[in-house]
Design goal:
The complex is a heterodimer of chains A (about 325) and B (about 240).
Chain A: E1 5-8, H1 12-20, E2 25-28, H2 34-39, E3 47-50, E4 59-61, E5 67-70, H3 75-79, H4 82-87, H5 89-97, H6 101-106, H7 109-114, H8 120-123, H9 166-171, E6 175-180, E7 183-188, H10 189-192, E8 211-217, E9 227-231, E10 242-251, E11 254-263, H11 273-279, H12 286-297, H13 308-325
Helix pairs in contact in A: 11-12, 12-13
Chain B: H1 13-21, E1 26-28, H2 33-44, E2 53-59, E3 62-68, H3 74-81, E4 100-103, E5 106-109, E6 122-124, H4 137-144, H5 154-169, H6 191-197, H7 208-218, H8 226-237
Parallel strand pairs in B: 2-6
Antiparallel strand pairs in B: 1-3, 2-3, 4-5, 4-6
Helix pairs in contact in B: 4-7
Classes of the chains: A alpha+beta (about 325), B alpha+beta (about 240).
Chain lengths: ~325, ~240
């Protein structure tokens, strides 16, 4: 690690002010991704602003339904929160399927959103990488790209966002609350992360000095039957090749509403909204779910080594919708 | 144990290295000083021109003062400054679990934790589990069930297992828990649950059967003997 100065922020305002006046400063909360990146010199901050003791550590029910989850609540605490288990099981299960207990105990909600891709070329400083050094090129385009994106990539960057937790948060239309030098604002979850375009060094639509303070999960009654399916190279402690958060709202046999989000396929959690729209009014059966899966994967642009992910994603969507239509549970 | 008060009583290779790297951490006697230390931390969290900070950590019930740069991980502080070499450095990237310690009762990778961020918290390492010569029940269970071969991952495996059993008592779920609203009790903790919950700790000797049996024993279950467990696994792997 490079040398840096360390300061404990005394308030959100203090943290924001410090970060606004030093563009090379970084916030640290759990540090499970940041410390690792610093060890291999992916990040070389001038100072670390320790926000871990600030008062953003609570989960609060919102009048009228939903939850406000403080940015510093640990991933473990979210997954085990009774209301999350009961009403948003896809969120509990997504978190529990990610990382290990040791990581989840420390990793914060805000930090989960801002963790960076595990693209091996980004991590290996012996290679060029447009995300690490803009303009240096993307070796994944001609290299090994089986873990990389199907949707929304650019010729600058093929990386995928690694989070599990963010997939159900996108499906649930969560809202990210941030505070910055210009005040507070709310960002719809699906607009929080960005596609790489010509600026792959930027993962999120945050301004300099802005700090995530909370994530708001709105009431989604049919999320009770929501599921999370994660497919990966080993059974545990591995990033997703494909993951799916899905929930189906049924009236008898007829689909009233549906949510689908995919992980492991894009630079952000991917919402195939055309597939969701297709499902509304259809009867819940295997053929309907197969058609929805086909629609969800329309426009996928597989690379040299990841074309298997297209069929894998279709099957994952079909299975997730099927299990949710039967009431949900473990997949 | 080696980490009692004052200067090391003997000069081993590790002690020499520790002294060479920095002045050895000096133990302060009473844990009751924790609050005073916490209250004073803002005043003392000043960095020297060399970038070092004077901090106090509570490790295994003792206050330990040390002067370190903020880039020092908790693992390096424990091993190289406080002479607590039980916590192991395997991958140093949060992938293997050999560095697992308990912070405020929760298991954590000390290699991904900065020492300066741990002031005011209670840190327990493998050295802090036994009471004198009496092993912690999880330590005894690892011995009873051959839960290791080379032993390098074992401190992390044991700390993770101690936390695992506490998580079960607190009703924590895992990704293989079938009903999130009814997580398993100690007596019904399945092999699949144990394996999932310990997936953040790797054992290159692959002593996993013994580790699972050790956790079963510590959970109050009757594990199969290590030899029987191995035979069952081999039988399952035989082609039909």
């Amino acid at each position: 690690m490079n040398k840096f100065s360390y300061i404990r922020a005394t308030s959100v305002n203090d943290a924001v002010q410090r970060a606004s006046t030093d563009k090379d400063a970084l916030f640290i909360a759990g540090g499970t991704n940041l410390v690792d990146r610093m060890k291999v010199f992916l990040d070389e901050p001038s100072q670390l602003i320790d926000i871990s003791r600030l008062q953003m550590q609570r989960i609060e029910p919102i009048a009228g339904g939903g939850l406000r989850i403080g940015a510093l609540v640990s991933n473990t605490a979210v997954a085990d929160y009774p209301d999350v288990r009961r009403n948003y099981p896809m969120l509990s299960r997504a978190i529990l399927s990610g990382a290990s207990q040791q990581i989840r105990n420390v990793a914060s909600v805000g930090g989960n959103l801002l963790q960076r891709t595990r693209c091996s070329y980004y991590y290996d400083t012996a290679f060029p990488c447009n995300k690490r050094e803009p303009g240096s090129s993307c070796p994944a385009a001609t290299g090994i790209n089986r873990m990389h994106a199907l949707f929304g990539a650019s010729d600058q960057c093929l990386a995928v966002h690694p989070s599990d937790m963010c997939v159900p948060l996108a499906a649930l239309d969560a809202i990210v609350e941030v505070e910055g030098p210009k005040g507070k604002r709310q960002i719809p979850f699906t607009e929080f992360h960005r596609l790489p375009g010509d600026t792959p060094q930027l993962d999120a639509n945050l301004e300099t000095g802005e700090l995530i303070t909370a994530v708001v999960v709105p009431p989604v009654p049919f999320a009770k039957s929501g599921v999370y399916l994660k497919l990966r190279d080993r059974a545990s402690y591995a990033f997703a090749l494909i993951s799916v958060a899905a929930a189906v709202d049924l009236a008898g046999d007829s689909i009233k509403d549906a949510r689908i989000a995919m992980g492991g396929v894009a630079h952000k959690p991917w919402r195939p909204t055309e597939a969701e729209k297709f499902l509304i009014g259809k009867s819940a059966n295997a053929e309907t779910f197969q058609q929805a899966a086909e629609i969800a994967l329309q426009g996928a642009k597989p690379l040299t080594h990841n074309s298997f992910k297209v069929e894998l994603a279709k099957r994952a969507i079909k299975r997730s919708l099927t299990v949710s239509a039967k009431g949900g549970g473990v997949i | 144990m080696e980490h009692h008060e004052g200067k090391p009583k003997r000069t081993s290779r590790r002690n020499f290295l520790g002294q060479a790297l920095t002045a050895a951490g000096t133990a302060i006697a009473a844990p009751t000083l924790l609050n005073q230390a916490t209250a004073a931390k803002e005043a003392r969290s000043m960095q020297s021109p060399e970038g070092e900070m004077a901090i106090t950590l509570m490790v295994n019930g003792e206050m330990r003062s040390l002067t370190i740069e903020p880039r020092v991980t908790l693992l390096d502080a424990l091993r190289e400054r406080l002479e607590l070499t039980g916590s192991k450095k395997g991958c140093d990237h949060g992938q293997c679990g050999a560095c697992t310690v308990l912070i405020d009762g929760q298991r954590v990778y000390s290699c991904l934790s900065l020492a300066v961020m741990q002031e005011g918290k209670e840190i327990v390492t493998i050295e802090g589990l036994a009471k004198g010569d009496v092993l912690h029940p999880v330590q005894a269970a690892f011995i009873d069930n051959d839960g290791f071969q080379c032993g390098y991952c074992t401190p992390g495996q044991i700390c993770a297992s101690v936390a695992l059993l506490d998580e079960i008592k607190r009703g924590c779920a895992s990704s293989v828990t079938s009903d999130l609203n009814r997580p398993p009790q100690l007596g019904e903790l399945s092999e699949a649950e144990i394996k999932e919950r310990l997936s953040g700790n790797l054992c290159r000797c692959s002593a996993y059967n013994g580790i699972v049996a050790a956790v079963q024993q510590a959970a109050g279950q009757t594990p199969p003997s290590a030899a029987a467990s191995m035979m069952v696994t081999e039988a399952q792997e035989m082609p039909a």
